[in-house]
């Protein structure tokens, strides 16, 4: 560390200690770059949620176990060796073995829980970075970019004086405040995002092996689509951890908003579905409820994710790939983080191109960009996602002709779903998420065995009550700018810890009298907020993350 | 910069730990000894100085040989480099005056730049020992400190101190080093540099290992080591005479409470009526 005009200087500042930040910092530190990592959580991972499948792709330029020896032994849950897709229609289900697509080009796929994984990574990163004179600090929130003569020269923080850096790697996740400060991400369009909601469920010893028919040290993935989500576009997942299950839903945020869907109810719909009874058993014990937005790379992966000294990686750059029902964000964040670090090191030694330009080149030459914004999707989207066309295909699949077609396909359905090519092309319409799975379930499905579900998920008040918060009393991190129901009312339903007719959540709607007329408005209490980012997009707010160490603290993640 | 923090073992007054006999007297034998909780702000202030200004930090205490755990606890919270225990029979049963003389003598040996003390002990509650020690040393004394900045180059400290306990009146004072600082419970350490926080992390790791074998870092001095005359320390050197100790009786409740059901409109009306007579502000 050197000091100029009282500001500290580090060669590299990495904001965020998720997989993207950890990978970037590891590569920087291994190359001897003095690296400071800033993480706002009390512990890395305490703010983070993922469904939990970490893919190590053969084509990936970097994977976490390349960068961190012992990663898989120390930080992941189970290698997931089996994968199924369940298309549900009423009391029928048609199950497809996704083995081919799950394994295609994949070296391994492990289930992970983020608190354990990220905090382990952070310890390794701190040790590596300390050698360079830097290190990793938790409970520090970067709140913006430090500029000089209009150029980005570092970061500003709530807890620290401004810090200068030769490169700033923003790995601060989906609601990146640094990307927003740079004007590189706007948080306006719900259809740029998915919303993920998850429950981590306790499993008695031996239950996973028995109920999922897997060996000790092996795991399974089950995906769900069809008519179990009231027509909201999206699907469900269930992954096995060491001794817990991660069960969740991922929906298009625009669909959640338009349908006025209650995310926790959609999750409950999955948890209490008779199909899941075989795995959940009679004693349902939920350890943690969590939620977070996920960007849709097909729409928002930044084609040129850098500006001056600022390089965006991972979710902050929109690099989150939803390949149909299979979600790949962590692996791309790792690749991008490491490539950004590599680019900075290269630009320093060569001195010809900027780190940003080199980073952009590397994203392309390493094929990361192709995964994130497949040309096939871009070409087909224009046609398939327009309302007229999707309405037509929806009706067609659902029609007698379409149904006959689906039935005739029979076993071929499986190979279609197992096609990487096709998955990349899947349009984000109701047809692909709801109608096709539902028709498959109806036409080819078999009755779901077993009785009704005994699962009784906790209500929202209990879910909030079970979470740990360090509330920043008197210092709310979100402010509603327009409290009219028209502008911000969607948050009452779309917020995963709020609901209409529930007074204990973040958003509430109420009718007030103003100047003799009745008005419907929303009010906000950020105390139960899980910082998912939804209301930054669906409501008119001034949205920030809480200060370092404040807010929700996930134990599982 | 060499800082010394003074600390003391006190009975653990927390619910479930402390025990009293029938007459309300403390049962010393059944009550564990812990580090005086009011010393924590002093430890925080010393740690801040060590981290921001570098140098070493020692912890000093006067007490029986069994204070090892208290000193270990202090070592962990201030990431102390070494520990000093002033201990022998002649020092026992000292009042604050005799304690101050003993501790000041020990401090002179170490020649520190700064000494930190808590604002009072949880048992005696006099708040005298710190100031009396400063007086013995003839050093500037800064009390009720809530924020501290040490300027080693200029050889001064600048402190923000509470002027009156519960009023938000704060004054900034400057004092030459060496100086004696009594930290207020409101003391808030400030680490606005990443480098300071990184060092904090390093020290935490280092100290954790050191505190495991804290005896290796402990120096015990008796009155002979300090060249102190037994007549002036311990019980013999204590001018304070404790005439007796009276347990404070629980204050009897003077008023009767009347329970009111909030859905009972009549009863609520009575409450409002009852309160309106005070509403005028008199
Ligand atoms: C329900 C759900 C299911 C998912 N399933 C999968 C899956 O199965 N497989 C998969 O690969 N991906 C999945 N994802 C996506 C995946 O979680 C993300 O793509 C991935 O975490 C992105 O990594 P990142 O490093 O870019 O950001 P993050 O992991 O979000 O990390 C960002 C870090 O930055 C910190 N931070 C944020 N702002 C600041 C600030 N201002 N100052 C300091 N620190 C800050 C945060 O605390 C956090 O630690 C899922 C996501 C969700 C929500
Ligand atoms: S208040 Fe906003 S950010 Fe917080 S949980 Fe609700 S929707 Fe998410």
TrEMBL record, chain A:
All copies of domain FAD-binding, residue ranges: 10-343
Pfam families: FAD_binding_3
Keyword Flavoprotein recorded: yes
Superkingdom as given in the UniProt entry: Archaea
Cofactor: FAD
GO molecular function: FAD binding; oxidoreductase activity
Keywords: FAD, Flavoprotein, Oxidoreductase
Gene3D superfamilies: FAD/NAD(P)-binding domain
Name of the protein this chain belongs to: FAD-binding protein
Automatic annotation (TrEMBL), chain B:
Domain Electron transfer flavoprotein alpha/beta-subunit N-terminal span(s) in chain numbering: 23-207
SMART domains: ETF
Record InterPro entries: ETF_a/b_N, ETF_b, Rossmann-like_a/b/a_fold
Chain positions covered by the region annotation Disordered: 244-268
Gene Ontology molecular function terms on file: electron transfer activity
Residue ranges crossing the lipid bilayer per the database entry: none
Name of the protein in question: Electron transfer flavoprotein subunit beta/FixA family protein
């Amino acid at each position: 560390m050197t000091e100029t005009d009282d500001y500290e200087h580090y060669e590299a500042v990495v904001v965020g200690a998720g997989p993207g930040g950890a990978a970037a910092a590891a590569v920087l530190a291994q190359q001897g770059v003095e690296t400071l990592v800033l993480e706002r959580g009390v512990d890395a991972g305490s703010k983070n949620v993922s469904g939990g499948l970490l893919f190590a792709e053969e084509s990936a330029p970097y994977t976490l176990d390349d960068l961190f020896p012992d990663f898989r032994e120390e930080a992941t849950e189970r290698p997931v060796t089996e994968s199924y897709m369940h298309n549900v229609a009423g009391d029928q289900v048609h199950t497809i073995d996704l083995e081919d697509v799950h394994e295609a080009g994949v070296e391994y796929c492990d289930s992970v829980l983020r608190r354990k994984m990220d905090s382990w990574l952070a310890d390794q990163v701190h040790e590596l970075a300390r050698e360079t004179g830097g290190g990793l600090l938790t409970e520090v929130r970067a709140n913006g970019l430090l500029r000089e003569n209009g150029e980005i020269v570092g970061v500003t923080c709530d807890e620290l004086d401004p810090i200068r850096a030769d490169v700033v790697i923003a790995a601060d996740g989906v609601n990146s405040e640094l990307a927003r400060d740079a004007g590189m991400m706007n948080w306006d369009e719900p259809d740029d995002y998915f919303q993920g909601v998850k429950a981590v469920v306790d499993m008695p010893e031996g239950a996973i092996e028995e109920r999922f028919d897997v060996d000790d040290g092996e795991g399974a993935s089950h995906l769900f689509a069809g008519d179990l989500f009231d027509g909201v576009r999206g699907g469900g997942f269930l992954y096995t951890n060491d001794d817990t299950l991660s069960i969740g839903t991922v929906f298009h945020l625009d669909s959640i908003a338009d349908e006025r869907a209650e995310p926790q109810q959609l999750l409950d719909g999955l948890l209490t579905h008779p199909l899941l009874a075989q795995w959940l058993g009679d004693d349902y014990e939920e350890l943690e409820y969590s939620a977070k937005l996920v960007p849709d790379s097909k729409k928002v992966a930044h084609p040129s994710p850098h500006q001056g000294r600022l390089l965006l990686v991972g979710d902050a750059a929109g690099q989150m790939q939803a390949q149909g029902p299979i979600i790949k964000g962590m692996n791309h964040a790792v690749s991008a983080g490491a490539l950004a670090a590599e680019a900075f090191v290269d630009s320093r030694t060569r001195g010809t191109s900027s780190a940003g330009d080199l980073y952009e080149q590397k994203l392309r030459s390493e094929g990361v960009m192709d995964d994130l914004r497949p040309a096939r999707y871009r070409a087909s989207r224009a046609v398939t996602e327009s309302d007229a066309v999707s309405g037509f295909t929806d009706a067609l699949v659902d029609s007698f002709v379409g149904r006959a077609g689906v039935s005739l396909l029979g076993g071929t359905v499986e190979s279609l779903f197992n096609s990487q090519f096709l998955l990349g092309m899947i349009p984000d319409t109701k047809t692909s998420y709801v109608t096709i799975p539902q028709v498959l379930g109806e036409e080819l499905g078999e009755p779901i065995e077993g009785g009704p579900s005994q699962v009784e998920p906790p209500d929202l008040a209990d879910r909030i009550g079970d979470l740990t918060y360090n509330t920043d009393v008197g210092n709310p991190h979100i402010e509603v700018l327009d409290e009219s129901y028209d502008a911000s009312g969607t948050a009452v339903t779309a917020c995963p810890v709020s609901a209409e007719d529930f007074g204990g959540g973040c958003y509430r709607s109420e009718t007030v009298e103003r100047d003799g007329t009745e008005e419907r408005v929303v009010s906000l209490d950020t105390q139960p907020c899980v910082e998912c980012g939804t209301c930054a997009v669906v409501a008119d707010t001034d949205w920030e993350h809480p200060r370092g160490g404040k807010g929700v603290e996930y134990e599982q993640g | 910069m060499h800082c010394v923090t003074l600390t003391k073992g006190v009975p653990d007054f927390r619910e479930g730990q402390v025990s009293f006999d029938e007459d309300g007297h403390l049962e010393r034998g059944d009550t564990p000894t812990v580090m005086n909780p009011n010393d924590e702000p002093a430890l925080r202030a010393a740690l801040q100085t060590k981290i921001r200004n570098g140098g070493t930090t020692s912890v000093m205490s006067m007490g029986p040989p069994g204070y090892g755990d208290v000193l270990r606890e202090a070592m962990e919270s201030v990431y102390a480099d070494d520990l000093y225990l002033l201990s022998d029979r002649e020092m026992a049963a000292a009042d604050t005056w005799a304690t101050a003389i003993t501790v000041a003598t020990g401090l002179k040996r170490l020649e520190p730049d700064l000494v930190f003390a808590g604002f009072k002990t949880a048992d005696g509650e006099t708040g005298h020992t710190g100031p009396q020690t400063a007086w013995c040393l003839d050093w500037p004394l800064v009390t009720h400190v809530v924020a501290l900045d040490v300027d080693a180059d200029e050889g001064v400290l600048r402190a923000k101190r509470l002027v009156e306990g519960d009023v938000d009146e704060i004054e900034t004072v400057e004092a030459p080093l060496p100086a004696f600082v009594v930290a207020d419970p409101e003391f808030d350490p400030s680490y606005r540099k990443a480098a300071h926080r990184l060092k904090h992390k390093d020290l935490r790791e280092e100290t954790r290992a050191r505190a495991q074998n804290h005896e290796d870092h402990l120096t015990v001095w008796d009155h002979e080591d300090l060249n102190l005359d037994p007549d002036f320390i311990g019980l013999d050197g204590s001018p304070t005479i404790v005439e007796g100790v009276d347990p404070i009786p629980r204050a009897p409740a003077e008023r009767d409470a009347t329970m009111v059901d909030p859905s009972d409109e009549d009863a609520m009306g009575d409450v409002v009526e009852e309160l309106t007579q005070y509403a005028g502000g008199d």
